[in-house]
Amino acid sequence: MLFLCTVSIPSFDKAKPFLEGHAKYIKENYEKGFFKIFGPYQPVTGGYVIIEAESMAQVEKIISTDPLTLGKACVNEVHEIAVGNVADDILKYAKR
Fold first, then answer.
1. pTM (predicted TM-score)
2. What is the CATH number of domain 2-83?
3. SS3 for the chain, per residue?
4. Domain ranges in the chain?
5. Which of 1, 5, 64, 92 has its CA 20 to 30 A from that of 72?
């Protein structure tokens, strides 16, 4: 199953102490295979992640370990999604 999690950061002053831990959290969940696509909004006011998981409960468990979430420095919204069409050239936007 795939899920879209949108993350809003109302105050970067409040979020700042958690950003280094948040970056590690993102990297760890990519390495575990849960996170498939991640990116910030432009301008940066939060971001989004596409998560592969077995259930909404598993997604909620994953999100609950994010330092931004633990620090109450963000607001998360999660929806189960289905993939429709994917453009062949989408990877040109990926930063690797």
1. 0.90
2. 3.30.70.1060
3. CEEEEEEECCCHHHHHHHHHHHHHHHHHHHHCCCEEEEEECCCCCEEEEEEECCCHHHHHHHHCCCHHHHCCCCEEEEEEECCCCCCCCHHHHCCC
4. 2-83
5. 1
